[in-house]
Request: fold
Amino acid sequence: MKARGRARSGGRTEILDAAAVAFMEYGFAGTSIDMVADVLGSTKGKIYYHFKSKTNLYLDVHRETMTAYIEAIEEVAKGAGTPLEKLHGVLMTLARQIMERLPYAKVAVEGVDMHMSRSTTPEQRAVLREIIDLRDRGEAILVGIIEDGMAQGLLRPCNPRLIVKPMLGALNWMTVWYRPRPEDTPESREALAETLVDYLLNGIAAPHRAEARA
Amino acid sequence: MKARGRARSGGRTEILDAAAVAFMEYGFAGTSIDMVADVLGSTKGKIYYHFKSKTNLYLDVHRETMTAYIEAIEEVAKGAGTPLEKLHGVLMTLARQIMERLPYAKVAVEGVDMHMSRSTTPEQRAVLREIIDLRDRGEAILVGIIEDGMAQGLLRPCNPRLIVKPMLGALNWMTVWYRPRPEDTPESREALAETLVDYLLNGIAAPHRAEARA
DNA sequence: GTCTATAGCGGGATAGAC
DNA sequence: GTCTATCCCGCTATAGAC
Reply:
């Protein structure tokens, strides 16, 4: 029963947005808190009031991204449809998320293998664990769908744990080459996502060739 | 007709190797020259004797990676075979390169969208231009092969320029999850590469489904 | 709750010994 | 050609005003 109703975030969300934008541009080590404050239109005092350290801020951006991913994925995975349709839906959902929230997506990509070797504090390690758990949960959902699809003969026989890597990699790679353009519309983004996901499901070899190689 | 025969690199190559290892672990901004020197087993004096700045060193690692890629790709592309075979060969070549020279591959991935906004010197801009040209050349070769394959009916109709992105993205993403293990053999690496490339060519939908979606 | 000012330190780059 | 010593800037984080 929080005071002042509407659960206002008290500026935290705005800071996360600004941080995502700054981190996207220069990466964790290359971004100073002053740069984040510039994007935000304030000074670092505000940021340090809401976040203990730059590392904490970064981790929170990353966690926010993974939470959004997992929620979107689970909604599709719980819905109706064949495994092939669900797989299509999950990949589309991810592609959309990446395009619509590019700065957050970019942080998630950089943060994946950021060892944070210096994340000394136990509190930070806990957040890191949360992030990794979210990622694992997402991958597990995908793996489950692929296993179902194989069992039903809808998908080619494969090692799902392995196939998930290039699938997610291809989508995450959008953060490298995709940039929103003024002429982009929801429809054009949707078409782009569809093209990519269609490729990830069907490959590029012509159908009869696909059988020849199998 | 260089003196002292055999074109010895005078330590430059060793520095590049050490730098790649350090940059792989902590990224450009997160790596200090002292860290590179530690990996190298020397002090920064040596590094600054051979390279003007940290940025120059990083750019040279990146260029070295792209040069190796392009050479490997061109060898396959020039050889005999159908477009489908060539496409298979080029992707296999890249997958091998990434696994065998993981630190260099990782630098290439980080460096792709490192704006180097502060690469003030014209000399650095020139190297950056070289790197981008090498990448574009590689992509153009792939696009050409795909166009040939489409013309011969070996590949599904698609926009080659667009399809190349997830293809290379899936391979580059190996730098995120692949780590050499003691039990790895040349054969196991080859099998892994084959699995990934096979997926990128054939997708995951079962053949009859692939026709249904088309 | 957000500002200004500053402490303290890490790291890029250079000078000069050897 | 490589090392040691050092300059100096920029950045994290904090203290204290408002």
Notes: DSSP finds eleven helices and no strands in chain B. The CA atoms of residues 156 and 214 of chain B lie 9 Å apart. Residues 32-34, 44, 48, 52-54 of chain B lie near DNA strand C (CB under 10 Å from a C1'). Chain B touches chain A through 52 residues (CB under 8 Å).
